[in-house]
Amino acid sequence: MTADFTPEPGQPDDAPGTEVAGGRLVRSQGVTAPAGFRAAGITAGIKANGNADLALVLNEGPELSAAGVFTANKVKAAPVLWSQQVLTTGRLRAVVLNSGGANACTGAPGFQDSHKTAEEVAAALSNWGTDTGAVEVAVCSTGLIGDRLPMDKLLPGVTEAVHELAGGLSGGTDAAYAIMTTDTVPKQAALHHSGKWNVGGMAKGAGMLAPALATMLCVITTDAVASAEQLDEALRAATRVSFDRLDVDGATSTNDTVLLLASGASNVAPSQEELTAAVTAVCDDLADQLMADAEGVTKRVRVTVRGAASEDEALIGARTVARDSLVKTAVFGSDPNWGRVLAAIGIAPIELDPDRITVSFNGSPVCIDGVGAPGAREVDLSGVDIDLDIDLRIGDAAVTIRTTDLSHGYVEENSAYSS
Amino acid sequence: MTADFTPEPGQPDDAPGTEVAGGRLVRSQGVTAPAGFRAAGITAGIKANGNADLALVLNEGPELSAAGVFTANKVKAAPVLWSQQVLTTGRLRAVVLNSGGANACTGAPGFQDSHKTAEEVAAALSNWGTDTGAVEVAVCSTGLIGDRLPMDKLLPGVTEAVHELAGGLSGGTDAAYAIMTTDTVPKQAALHHSGKWNVGGMAKGAGMLAPALATMLCVITTDAVASAEQLDEALRAATRVSFDRLDVDGATSTNDTVLLLASGASNVAPSQEELTAAVTAVCDDLADQLMADAEGVTKRVRVTVRGAASEDEALIGARTVARDSLVKTAVFGSDPNWGRVLAAIGIAPIELDPDRITVSFNGSPVCIDGVGAPGAREVDLSGVDIDLDIDLRIGDAAVTIRTTDLSHGYVEENSAYSS
């Protein structure tokens, strides 16, 4: 703990942290690390297994600016349609999130449920002394697609969550627990700038925009002073290089949502550059945590395509390899099967010359100029972390995608999910 | 057996067969069903396990016209580069195929190996009395990418294969066995037109153009009289609706090859329409056999997208769903998880309205107008064959893709393949 850092209203943070983006990054705090935020996580009874399933994040201000990024899927869940609509104002007082049901493909009645949930949050917060309108409340849901939510349990839960709102760390951590579905651990990260201003966040799931259907939900908070436009710019820049480059199985959820809320409570107005760097650092760390806890993961894999003609082409190439089932099963088997890597990059719609490609596993070259390197089949991939590096030697652009292996655990978990 | 059918030079075919494309389709014969073809399959010692690994198909004429379709992968194996080159003449005397090694990513020396193999076939056939040039010999290889072939075993094997050439059924069946890798059964099909003219074929693997990396090799023969141009038109039309619509895991091999050879020995010159229909029937049946024997398959799945704005859009939609890991694992678990189907079709870059989509499993509607149908979760998918039907209700186009589930067997087989 640095001498000049006393998080308000959270408890002190004793974790040593990592220096990044001009601040100190810790995983012991989340959305309540910045001043001006309260959170809660409770058991409303939406999940059959009795685990926590309802979270609430409250921005006490003085400012209420906000931005969001949503799934690119054309089939959007009701809460996504609701939240996109309310965010056109650039203001959010609160976010309510439930696990235990996605409220997707539920038609007009499902949209009414999201609307009603926001109204219930607004009424409960107003009763509690914080004047709030439904249009200031974003809604996020995650779970099985196609079923209506049990509103008879969810709505009383909203009132309970408002009563439970606490300013300390426990509120943020409770909220991080309540949004978990197949996650095995909650994911939080906070970046402290010498006690002057802070960014915090929580996330669940395994992807966003390109990634896994295990819905990704993420709420980021900051006590910086920033307009909705500044938040939007920071959030888009941050998600582009973090969550957008996490690709577990190429699927994209109907519910993926990333929200950024600013309270302005620090009275510090960082530059756009500083704000973007801080939000990016938190998103990047959360993306790392999502990869490490992806469904059935036994390997944490970073696929880098470098030497590409452009960043777009590097991204397409890395994503194509990261999604390839044959590469992913080989990695699960700790098999340095570089031939599958070449076959995978060969179908990417990008400029390449098969006779110039160089491939390395964990720094050991396995293929040079498109031909196997001596000892390539003996490279040891038995560890958990695998760096797969593909140099196209066409240009200067490079992109890294985080992914995982394709394991028995993935098949097991996803073949039994709705039962 | 029909009274007027006496296959020459193959043995009589007693299988009852299926009426299709104006002929009788049987699976007991392959490339030697049409007159004018001989084939062999032998053990050259390329495979470590001692199984048959070298096949030869000989066209005895009188005509030698031929056509081919090759992998769309930019990383092409040496035998593909060789065969594409020799096929520019529109003539083939023979095809030599080896399992036990793909000869891909082996550089200029690997190309020399393919060239040398063709020369050896030409020399051995010429010694045997059939004057042949290397430029009349196509080469196909399948197996692990990245290793040179054991030419000291392969070249003597070529001479042995020429000596083994037999006109009867056993030659075609031996050849079908010798090209197997992870296949558990050989795949053959023949279409007889009342003893007048015939099409036969053999295949191995699990895909083509979009499909699995388990290289797809296929040789089709016919005793019809047809020019190289007619064969090319027939083959492209046939593969477009058969192998191109088989998609096990979205991967595309470096070695995929489909060849069509005509001997003209029947003296029958069918119309283009008749030729295309016959070649399509054989390719379609082989595609069905490939699906049924795909790596780790426990379910045979047909994904149909109908009501699309165009055939292209229907194809993109069906392919997107067929490749979706979450749909495929749900099918493995016999789980009618239609929400994943909607989420998958929602990321396809095609025109759709989420509120108009109807989904059925095996004829039972599970989602109507984008909302779950009553009883949707109780649909029984415990059988082996699963029809997944998605109606977009935008236009009139429909396409069906054959695929499989994503099973433990798939992970097992592909995580241990190179070891």
From TrEMBL, chains A, B:
Site feature location: Involved in the stabilization of negative charge on the oxyanion by the formation of the oxyanion hole: 142-143
Residues forming the catalytic site: 215 (nucleophile)
Name of the top EC class for this enzyme: transferase
MF terms (GO), sorted A to Z: L-glutamate N-acetyltransferase activity; L-glutamate N-acetyltransferase activity, acting on acetyl-L-ornithine as donor
EC code: 2.3.1.35, 2.3.1.1
Reactions listed under catalytic activity: L-glutamate + acetyl-CoA = N-acetyl-L-glutamate + CoA + H(+); N(2)-acetyl-L-ornithine + L-glutamate = N-acetyl-L-glutamate + L-ornithine
Domain of life: Bacteria
Keyword Lyase in annotation: no
Protein location: Cytoplasm
GO biological process, one term: ornithine biosynthetic process
Protein's pathway: Amino-acid biosynthesis; L-arginine biosynthesis; L-ornithine and N-acetyl-L-glutamate from L-glutamate and N(2)-acetyl-L-ornithine (cyclic): step 1/1; Amino-acid biosynthesis; L-arginine biosynthesis; N(2)-acetyl-L-ornithine from L-glutamate: step 1/4
Keyword Cytoplasm recorded: yes
InterPro entries found in the cross-reference section: Arg_biosynth_ArgJ, ArgJ-like_dom_sf, ArgJ_beta_C
Site entry: Cleavage: 214-215
Binding locations of substrate: 181, 204, 215, 295, 414, 419
Gene Ontology CC terms: cytoplasm
Keywords: Acyltransferase, Amino-acid biosynthesis, Arginine biosynthesis, Autocatalytic cleavage, Cytoplasm, Multifunctional enzyme, Transferase
Family matches, as CDD domains: OAT
Role noted for this protein: Catalyzes two activities which are involved in the cyclic version of arginine biosynthesis: the synthesis of N-acetylglutamate from glutamate and acetyl-CoA as the acetyl donor, and of ornithine by transacetylation between N(2)-acetylornithine and glutamate.
Family note: Belongs to the ArgJ family.
Oligomeric form and interacting partners: Heterotetramer of two alpha and two beta chains.
Protein name, entry field: Arginine biosynthesis bifunctional protein ArgJ
Organism, scientific name: Rhodococcus triatomae
Gene: argJ
